[in-house]
Amino acid sequence: MTTMTETSARFREFKMPDVGEGLTEAEILKWYVQPGDTVTDGQVVCEVETAKAAVELPIPFDGVVHELRFPEGTTVDVGQVIIAIDVAPGSGDAPAPAADPVQEPVEEPAAEAEPKGRTPVLVGYGVAESSTKRRPRKGAPAAPEAAAVAAAVQAELNGHAAPAPAAAPAPSVPAQGGAAGGRPLAKPPVRKLAKDLGIDLATVVPTGKDGVITREDVHAAAAPAPAASEAPAQAAPAPAAAEAPVATEPTAVPDSARETRVPVKGVRKAIAQAMVGSAFTAPHVTEFVTVDVTRTMKLVAELKEDKDMAGVRVNPLLVIAKALLVAIKRNPEVNAAWDEANQEIVRKHYVNLGIAAATPRGLIVPNIKDAHDKTLPQLAEALGELVTTARDGKTSPAAMAGGTVTITNVGVFGVDTGTPILNPGESAILAVGAIKLQPWVHKGKVKPRQVTTLALSFDHRLVDGELGSKVLADVAAILEQPKRLITWA
User: Fold this and answer.
1) Could you give the CA distance from residue 337 to residue 352 in angstroms, rounded to a whole number?
2) Is 219 among the residues known to form the active site?
3) What's the pLDDT score for residue 172?
4) Which of 334, 382, 400, 418 is deepest in the core (most CB within 10 A)?
5) In what order do the strands lie in the sheet with 63-68?
């Protein structure tokens, strides 16, 4: 046992973190390292996709990659070990990876056995069931062929022969600091502290009431500890081959000659759930207006030549965004949210302006924080950064949280306008149609003018027809006479 303890202390395990508050799983999109590669603290080792965005994960310690626990394309629960690092390479023979039978007897104390029924959690996080409702990953009966496939994949990653197919999987063990089979229990400030210190909450022993992790627990986990004391935490709770969901969760569905099936997961799954929830929760009303934006297009052309706007992208969306911000300032009641639990309308005294962006993984809505305080050059710079980050697939969950009002520019696809669905938790969304040269009555004569159609959808529980009409009319008036950006600001 002494040898196993000393050997285990050589290896550090990195678990799938909760990269966004409340997330439970993530798909491994790409590994940037392979067994035998040297890594340093802060180096990105893989890219994962959550229900909110694609995120790159840095490793929090130095060493040599010993083992990748899951192949690309696998969906992994938060808290599961995804990579093992040899932090003391060359100090002796490396033990077998997680599938080595010598590690199977390692169990957690009986006091941490999985409880029955429902486990109390923090306010705001609901109540965690003691057994997951999602697809089974551990301990589920599997056909011999499935076990063989999982073992073969793991063996290929580990670089050694696969165990016999008849080997029975070890029972799963609840992680420390959380409800059985669930995520660790901790308040948001404690989670932020752990993130700042690079501490995985799944490895922290809780001392708070009902198993809640405290700030002191996080600081204790961050403090240096003797190598021998790390051994129990570093030992794998079960063979990796038993944990791998390769056999039970195929990432691709066979195609026929006439149709293709694409699994709904990640960002696309989150979009679908959010849109259904929004459409059937908030009573939507959509109003339309067609407006002559010829003067706005002239202003855009002039701004492109302005030295104060040098280095930033200037386009019609920039002026439209500024027009919406001015309209909100003139009608602040529209910038609000509906609190169903407390039956209250929450009026926001700030504007986090969301911009719907189409990406290869689906539509996402990052937002510009405190857009109401930004000058036109600052707004242009923020818009440029937002679009570039979204196209690169690097938008963080934090960038998509806390939006208050959104703009969706369907005009880039040549569409006149649409009836947009509210981003969940927001009060209004403005759709901008294509800007086209059309015949228009101008100063009593029919002339070719630049024209577009705007559509404003709003939550009729907190925005009535008069208020919604005023906001849309103000945006249209500014785009028709952009000098109002000065006179109304």
Assistant:
1) 13
2) no
3) 40
4) 334
5) 11-15, 81-86, 63-68, 38-39
> Binning pLDDT at 50, 70 and 90, where does residue 484 land?
very high
SS3 labels along the chain = CHHHHHHHCCEEEEECCCCCCCCCEEEEEEECCCCCCEECCCCEEEEEECCCCEEEEECCCCEEEEEECCCCCCEEECCCEEEEEECCCCCCCCCCCCCCHHHCCCCCCHHHCCCCCEECCCCCCCCEECCCCCCCCCCCCCCHHHHHHHHHHHHHHHCCCCCCCCCCCCCCCCCCCECCCCCECECHHHHHHHHHHCCCHHHCCCCCHHHCECHHHHHHHHCCCCHHHHHHHHCCCCCHHHHCCCCCCCCCCCCCCCCCCCCCCHHHHHHHHHHHHHHCCCCEEEEEEEEECHHHHHHHHHHHHCHHHCCCCCCHHHHHHHHHHHHHHHCHHHCEEEECCCCEEEECCCCCEEECEEECCEEECCEECCHHHCCHHHHHHHHHHHHHHHHCCCCCHHHHCCCCEEEEEHHHHCCCCCCCCCCCCCCEEEEECCCEEEEEEECCEEEEEEEEEEEEEEECCCCCHHHHHHHHHHHHHHHHCCCHHHHCC
- pLDDT beyond 70 at 308: yes
| pLDDT tens profile 203-242 | 888 888 778 888 888 878 877 544 443 434 443 343 333 3
Which tens digit of pLDDT belongs to each residue from 246-260?
333 344 455 567 888
How much is the average pLDDT of 29-52? Answer: 88
